[in-house]
């Protein structure tokens, strides 16, 4: 069995690992650390919670301690919360060498960030959008001497999801030197391998944890088949059950929209569950504050959108509930990966309506495992149905009386302006498209009606 010594890590780092309860390397660390220390580009694909962060933090710190200067390493990651978490790992493991880091994420003051960047920290951890803004608006940022460029959750940074990072990545890639080591990590790298290889051009060392099943063994994966209207009653029932049986467990619930996230939070609070939310329509300070309250167990239930699906490492999370079935297997893998981390056990329960059964089949095919049914006393659930649905409706009405939807529109406009689009023009275009679509539909209906009326009626002899 490998040890950190045998991987070539120096004594002070090994001691620092021990202090943090890290005594033996995980497989991804065992394979990737020596390659990175050798100076190779590296692509590491290993399951959720398998220690990928330390697999890049440790060798970077070792190289940095041999020749400390700033900016030595740039880490890109898709969410702001993850940027803070990665910076914390650098800080904790790099404490003996007095590591200076700087976090550059959206939603925080840009001037303060500019000042911090100008102090030349050893490590910059950033989300692409805000870092690209700094590069575009200032010529004082020098990333031209970095030794390491790291893309954590690399496949997410390259895919064109609801937040498209590709333009920002282009700006960043043109600001970093071509001669560098590039490290790419994720639990789901393989879909985007070719694009990733164009970033890690230097004959990368590629390591993938080969395994039949894509999720971890310690994860108990379940589903509950429910009509849409009964979903919330099941949710309330499950939370009550887990709270009654295990009062020290934390639960993460994933839902599909910010609005739903807000309504479910309000609803669960009406049932006196200690609930807090995390979604992209919240102010950034509130997002950080809520996550801190959840991490420190002040609140045991976190309802989030997919902004929290990747990377977050919260050891007390024992249960993940998917309030909606994820449309993509990849998202399922990351969501359920918030529990059963670092060898711990965990349960993931997905609420499945009759319309989602094909999604579950796709998930099962991708992860190469079957989800089994979670046994529930349906009668018990139905007893609370009316109360749950009335409470939800009341919460919806309360939310409608606030400016939640208005804020959403404003945020959308802001994003369009940032993307270089004219929101009024876009709105006009959308309306025109809608008009054309309606006209076409009307014409088609007319054609169909004509066809039917022209059909000869059958004559029976
Ligand atoms: N060698 C090790 N031994 C024990 N625990 C470890 C080791 N390396 C890392 N850990 C711990 O394992 C947990 C999960 O690590 P990490 O967050 O890096 O997972 P990950 O592989 O990046 O997961 P994800 O794909 O969800 O981002 C962390 O709490 C970390 O401190």
From TrEMBL:
Basic and acidic residues bias spans: 419-435
Highest taxon above the source species: Eukaryota
Family affiliation: Belongs to the DEAD box helicase family. DDX49/DBP8 subfamily.
Gene: ddx49
Annotated keywords: ATP-binding, Helicase, Hydrolase, Nucleotide-binding, Nucleus, RNA-binding
This protein's name: Probable ATP-dependent RNA helicase DDX49
Catalytic reaction equation(s): ATP + H2O = ADP + phosphate + H(+)
GO cellular component assignments: cytosol; nucleolus; nucleoplasm
Chain segments carrying region Disordered: 414-461
Short sequence motif named Q motif, residue ranges: 2-30
Function, in words: ATP-dependent RNA helicase that plays a role in various aspects of RNA metabolism including the regulation of mRNA export and the levels of pre-ribosomal RNA. Regulates the stability and synthesis of pre-ribosomal RNA and thereby regulates cell proliferation. Also possesses antiviral activity by recognizing gammaherpesvirus transcripts in the context of lytic reactivation.
Helicase ATP-binding domain sequence ranges: 33-207
Compositionally biased spans, kind Basic residues: 436-454
One Gene Ontology MF term: hydrolase activity
Organism: Cyprinus carpio
Cellular localisation: Nucleus, Nucleolus
Record domain Helicase C-terminal: where: 234-382
Enzyme Commission number: 3.6.4.13
Pfam families membership: DEAD, Helicase_C
Domain DEAD-box RNA helicase Q: 2-30
């Amino acid at each position: 069995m490998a040890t950190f010594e045998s991987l070539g890590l120096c004594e002070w780092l090994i001691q620092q690992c021990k202090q943090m309860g890290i005594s033996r390397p995980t497989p991804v660390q065992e394979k990737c650390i020596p390659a990175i220390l050798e100076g190779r580009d590296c692509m590491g694909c290993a399951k959720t919670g398998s220690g990928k962060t330390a697999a890049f933090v440790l060798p970077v710190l070792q190289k940095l301690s041999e020749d400390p200067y700033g900016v030595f390493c740039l880490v890109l990651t898709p969410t702001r919360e993850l940027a803070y978490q990665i910076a914390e790992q650098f800080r904790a493991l790099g404490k003996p060498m007095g590591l200076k880091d700087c976090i550059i994420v959206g939603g925080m003051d840009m001037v303060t960030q500019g000042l911090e960047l100008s102090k030349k920290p050893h490590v910059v951890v950033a989300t692409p959008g805000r870092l690209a803004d700094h590069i575009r608006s200032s010529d004082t940022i020098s990333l031209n001497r970095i030794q390491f460029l790291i893309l954590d959750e690399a496949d997410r940074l390259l895919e064109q999801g609801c937040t498209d990072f590709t333009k920002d990545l282009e700006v960043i890639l043109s600001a970093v030197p071509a001669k560098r080591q590039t490290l790419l990590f994720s639990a789901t790298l393989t879909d985007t391998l070719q694009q990733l290889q164009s970033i890690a051009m230097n004959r990368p060392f590629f390591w993938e944890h080969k395994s039949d099943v894509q999720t971890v063994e310690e994860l108990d994966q379940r589903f509950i088949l429910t009509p849409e209207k009964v979903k919330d009653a099941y949710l309330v029932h499950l939370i009550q059950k887990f709270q009654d049986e295990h009062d020290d467990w934390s639960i993460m619930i994933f839902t599909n929209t910010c609005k739903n996230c807000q309504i479910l939070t309000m609803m669960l609070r009406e049932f006196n569950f200690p609930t807090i939310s995390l979604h992209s329509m919240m102010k950034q300070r509130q997002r950080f504050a809520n996550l801190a309250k959840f991490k420190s167990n002040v609140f045991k239930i976190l309802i989030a959108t997919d902004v929290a699906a990747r990377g977050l490492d919260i050891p007390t999370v024992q249960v993940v509930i998917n309030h909606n079935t994820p449309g993509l297997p990849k998202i399922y893998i990351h969501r359920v990966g918030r529990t059963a981390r670092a060898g711990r056990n965990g349960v993931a329960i997905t609420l499945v309506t009759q319309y989602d059964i094909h999604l579950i089949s796709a998930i099962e095919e991708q992860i190469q495992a079957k989800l089994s049914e979670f046994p529930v006393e349906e009668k018990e659930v139905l007893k609370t149905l009316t109360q749950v649905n009335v409470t939800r409706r009341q919460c919806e009405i309360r939310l409608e009386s606030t400016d939640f939807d208005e804020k959403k529109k404003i945020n959308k406009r802001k994003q369009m302006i940032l993307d270089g689009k004219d929101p009024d023009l876009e709105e006009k275009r959308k309306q025109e498209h809608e008009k054309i679509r309606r006209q076409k539909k009307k014409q088609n209906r007319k054609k169909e009606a004509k066809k039917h009326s022209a059909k000869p009626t059958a004559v029976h002899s």
